Automatic annotation (TrEMBL):
Domain HTH cro/C1-type residue range list: 89-143
Protein name as catalogued: HTH cro/C1-type domain-containing protein
Keywords, sorted A to Z: DNA-binding, Transcription, Transcription regulation
Molecular function GO labels: DNA binding
Amino acid sequence: MSKASANFGGTVGWDEQTVIGKRAPRPGELKSESAIAAAERAGVAIDTSKKFAAGHNKQHESAKNTAVLDRETEELHHERVNKDTARAIQQARVAKEWTQADLAKHINEKQQVINEYEQSRAIPNQQILSKMERALGVKLRGKDIGQPFTSGPKKK
């Protein structure tokens, strides 16, 4: 027995090859043409599947064409506080000599919310309108907007 074969603990054939630290590529890594060709030659199973809208942010894209949307007759928008309500809020606040910030503190809202209601830019929130009615003492909902607000149970 030769010295080289004694070190390995047996005979080593010339045709055998031991590679340490090399791993087979995962399917996701075979994306280049040369890697696919090499995998085909080696007999590795190749899965070719087209992913829908890969690389594009399609989930937030509208399904309708913009020209179709332009031709659509239905207008989708939120109702805003009407001008009468906005005027009633402003007049009642000024009558009490309050600033928008003062009213905001009384109803636990931001001053910006009061500003939006007085400018008719806010989407009406019944809770906020109710708090304003109680703080200002003026009706802001229903038929008689601007009339004095009396809280308590309704009379039968």
